[in-house]
Amino acid sequence: MSGGHWDHFEIRFKYELEEFCEEIKERFPNLSKELLNKGKSICEIIHDIDYDFCGDTLINNDHDFEIGSIEKLNLDNAIGLK
User: Fold this and answer.
1) What proportion of the chain, given as a percentage, has pLDDT over 90?
2) How far is CA 12 from CA 47, 48, 81, in A?
3) pTM
């Protein structure tokens, strides 16, 4: 595997988000937690797109992938509000 088209951008995003959330968690503990939860799904989505762009893997149907990704993000939100 090549490391993706954007050279593991999702990993850099994850570390930046974790650092940000660590800094805000005292003032905004629930927001920090929600951002980290949402960030996991965002990283997975970015990874899938990244590896599709570079040709390491293939997204078979763009429309279905897009719908599924949006649903994943919305599901994260619904779970977090409970």
Assistant:
1) 67
2) 11, 15, 27
3) 0.77
